[in-house]
Amino acid sequence: MKPVQESMESFLSVASQAARSAGALIRENWRQAKQVHYKSAINLVTTIDRRAEEMIVGLLLKNFPGHSVLAEEETSISGSEGGYRWIIDPLDGTTNFVHAYPQFGVSIGLEQAGEIILGVVYDPLREEEFTAVKGQGARLNGQPVHTTEVAELNKALLATGFPYDHRENPDYYLRYFRAFMVRAQGIRRAGAAALDLCYLACGRIDGFWELKLHPWDTAAGSLIVREAGGTVTDFAGKPFSILGEETLASNGLIHAEMLDALKLMGV
Ligand code: IPD
Ligand code: CA
Ligand code: CA
């Protein structure tokens, strides 16, 4: 196969194809027994995570051979062309996948010269594909989506997650949980950060926070939130970076209140 002509359309179409192929593999295997390996006590990886990554990276590089790649299951390729880097979580929500809890997805972001310009997150069970191209809005299965109009934290539904060192530092993470628990209407912990961000983008939740996420968890989702009209920062309100330790995302309207809640707990 010849490499395709580079354009935003071709990037989006190939990323979508890659997410859907990996998603199909995940869907075929989610009820089967898994071969589980331990990266640490509670950080799991399965053969499906690795096969999904191979499929995605293979397809992207077949089409865009000069691009760089950073993917969770250890693919790191330094390409030569145009400053493009694909940032991939082949299976976000691995603990859910291992337990056959139906909340996981594939996340593919494209960065150029340090800026995320495209994101695709695919939920293979619900067949929901969230996409965004910088400056062109966010979409769910092709239809434009927007963050909510909820303007008070008091009326907001939030989501969060915990990093894999939560057994070692439970009180640290629970302080954040408490700060929002006493202020929000409800909190969900569904177990797939990329989907949490997309749920914010399409109006199913109003805000999200998490510590110690990795670039592959947030690259696509953070762009999808912003393109849906939302705000993403660190916990002090400074610009969000996929390399940073803090992710605070919201519909924009409750962002100041979320920042205040963090300030009041002395973060
Ligand atoms: C994890 C999930 C989870 C979040 C963790 C992530 P993984 O990703 O997104 O929701 O709380 O911090 O590491 O390991 O399933 O790809
Ligand atoms: Ca992840
Ligand atoms: Ca993963």
Can you tell me about this structure?
With 267 residues, the protein is α+β, with helices and mostly antiparallel strands. The protein has two domains: 8-145, Fructose-1,6-Bisphosphatase, subunit A, domain 1 (Fructose-1,6-Bisphosphatase, Chain A, domain 1), CATH 3.30.540.10; 153-264, D-Maltodextrin-Binding Protein, domain 2. 33% of the residues lie in helices and 26% in strands. The protein has helices at 8-29, 47-63, 94-98, 170-181, 193-201, 215-227, 255-264; strands at 36-38, 44-46, 68-71, 76-77, 84-92, 105-112, 115-123, 128-133, 138-140, 143-145, 157-160, 186-188, 207-211, 231-233, 246-250. The strands form three sheets. The chain has an eight-stranded mixed sheet, with helices on both faces. A five-stranded mixed sheet has the order 12-11-13-15-14, with helices on both faces. The protein has a two-stranded antiparallel ribbon with strand order 1-2. Helix 1 (8-29) packs antiparallel against helix 2 and helix 5 runs parallel beside helix 6 (215-227). It starts with 7 loop residues before the first helix and ends with a helix. One calcium ion (CA) binds at residues 49, 72, 89, 91-92, 94.
